[in-house]
Predict the 3D structure of the following.
Amino acid sequence: MITVVRRRLGLALERLSRAVLVSRNASRTFVARSSAAVADSALLRRLAPGSSSYLRAGLVRSPRGFAASPASGQAAAEETHAFQAETRRLLDIVTNSLYTDKEVFVRELVSNASDALEKCRHDFMAKGEDPGELAVAIKVDSDKGTFVIEDNGLGMSKDDLASNLGTIARSGSKAFVDEIAGDAKDDTTAATSTAAANIIGKFGVGFYSAFMVSDKVDVYSCAGDGLAHRWSSAGDGSYTIAKCELGDGDGQAPARGTRIVLHVKEQDKTLAAAEWAVESVLKKYSAFVGFPVTLNGKRTNSIDALWTKSAGEVSDEDATAFYRFVGGAIDTPAFRLHFSADAPLTIRSLLFAPSDNPERGFAGRQLEGDQSLSLYSRRVLIQQNARGLLPQFMRWVRGVVDCEDVPLNISRESLQDSDLIRRLGEIITKRMLKFLGERAKKEPEKYVKWYGKMGVFLKEGICGDQSYMYKDALTPLLRFETSAEAVKSDGDDKPRHAQISLDQYVERMPEGQKDIYYLVAPGGRKQAEISPYLEHLKRKGHEVLYLYAHVDEFVMQHIRTHKGKKLVSVEMAEFDEDSKDAKKDDDTTDDGESLGGEAMEKLCQWFAEEALPGRVTGVKASSRLVGSPALLTGHEPEAMRRYRMMLSMMSDDATAKKLDELQMSAGLELNPKHAIVKGIQAALESGDEERKAVAKMVAEQVFDNARIAAGALDDPREIIGRLNTLLEKVVVK
């Protein structure tokens, strides 16, 4: 057994010697780190002459050089192997398959340069020295086909070049953050935290994106010690390092910092060597990098990252310019929110509420799936339109959300942890809705003006799929006109009807009122004021909300209750008809006595059986009507009627017929005090057949008028013939 072990130890030593010899003579190549070398050295130490550890552990060495687990008797040995990587293939994957768009190489190189500057600033501040003006300079030359990016950061030594650029997936920036993480007990804690927060890189692959557009990449760097080196590679799996001179010319390194020269591929010159193309990419991805970035001598990031500042540090002019830049807007924002949080997520954001509806007007655009909210991480753009971050009803929000905790994939183009993104979206949404509520209280008139244009989105949120999450926050933000008299305020030329919230409505409810009443009137205030359904509540002194949009009916059905009060449509409301006030009003009116109980009962029966057979579910006397002859009851709301019509158009004949029958399930209430109702009764008792025929037509017209008032008449053309006949009889007389 000892002989076998020694023989295998000799093979391992021979193989290791050959590997060392090859590595000394061969050119440097990219390496992918693994634990194989560590396993080899550990094994050799344990099997060194004079050591008995191999006897105690029973370890052997396979010809391939992998460590094997202890053997027990005749049982098969369990081997542990380290993953190997084909370096050239790995580089090819990083270069050609990792990123969606080639343009992101600009973002990656600028981010690396920014990290180098941040390290430099931290290093000098820790020593109490001034690093001077730190900046990133980019030069492109379409004729030469070169892209040059230079920074005056710390720079890299020969060993740094080999370690940072010669090892794929080794992030010098991440190593720097890990290194300074232990400085919390030092006097430079604040500077350390700032430096760590401003570092962008973490994966160690961004540099290699340069090979997507380059035939060759040269890196000239000096750590400020007077020793400059050039790192060069064609992205073919190998690189070279050589000394170079200091200076500003070709083939020279800056006195402190790094200069990267990309020799752009012919087919990519319009992307990587054209000034206009590079400028566009810089403004898209790197507009808010913490250091000045110039392109051919012109600064490209002149707008500050305002979301990192407090609200008091940002002027209205700067905020408007920022809003137009990040949102592509031309209007002025109505409101802006500076929001930051450190728990449960680290968030810095600047959010805007547009003053105009972006989905309306000649220049309007549908924002479905195209939200104008940008997601950043440490000032670098991750998603220009952060789809899915906020719910759809919040798609009007514009601005920036910067979250250090955003889990990115290695290309920094998509998000990893969907649960964390969902939580981030919930935090931003709830804070924005809370902010709108605060604005509504502090600037009510300005908020009402904004709501008039943007309220449709809030209503969508109440009726949408995520209503259960945000309904309680959205409901107080709604505003409605009411039946209250117009009031003239200071500065107004004429009285105006104020818009109030449901909270204000509840506060104004008289004692004894149990429900919140609303009336849907798509035709506007005039239509609402003449509605027969309003008469009873006006008499009782109850305020009614006026809803002018068809969607408002669905909104109320989703809210259902507010502060313990039910939301009830006046068309569906049921009132106590036996109240003393109702009986008193039923006795006499300005038009005289009302029809008696027996006469009214017979008239209701005649309406149901002879005048309107099969068209109503029932007819009865009403105690809530004042100036109208009749009203419809138990009918479907107008919004539901429109929905039914839409379903009918999409259904087959049998289904459409059943849907149409729904409009027939309505009752009719008659006003026994109204002259028309009493006139019909008089005509029926006259015995004159002609008058009876006219009474029947009038009864039908009264019914259709009630349907019109309720918004339940699909086709008003059906009443034209009857109206012409009645008009003819009136004119002839």
In short: Residues 1-73, 171-178, 187-203, 585-591 have pLDDT under 50 and may be disordered. The longest strand covers residues 214-222.
